[in-house]
Design goal:
about 15% helix
């Protein structure tokens, strides 16, 4: 499994499934979070790591169209499942 702490600003990732960590007993995930990740999975392009916070957590920024409106989101990559790093062709 990839380690989110190894990501750097500018790296590209693709969301490929809901994180396995979300299925753990006692783990609650908001409906909006599930909807956001499902929208990211449907995207045809990868997401770029925009920043690394003071705790080493990588974050992306995303715009998603919903019901004709553009929504702006930021998302921290805490889980090690549900995404993969995109290797750029050189």
């Amino acid at each position: 499994m990839p380690d989110p702490c190894e990501l750097k600003v500018g790296d590209l990732i693709r969301f490929i499934s809901l994180p396995e960590e979300w299925n753990r007993e006692g783990h609650h995930v908001h409906k909006e979070s599930v909807e956001f990740i499902q929208a990211m999975i449907r995207r045809k392009w990868p997401s770029r790591i925009a920043e690394i916070d003071e705790y080493g957590v990588p974050w992306i920024s995303a715009r998603i169209k919903r019901r004709g409106r553009t929504e702006h989101h930021t998302w921290g990559i805490f889980e090690s499942t549900g995404w993969r790093k995109v290797i750029r062709k050189q």
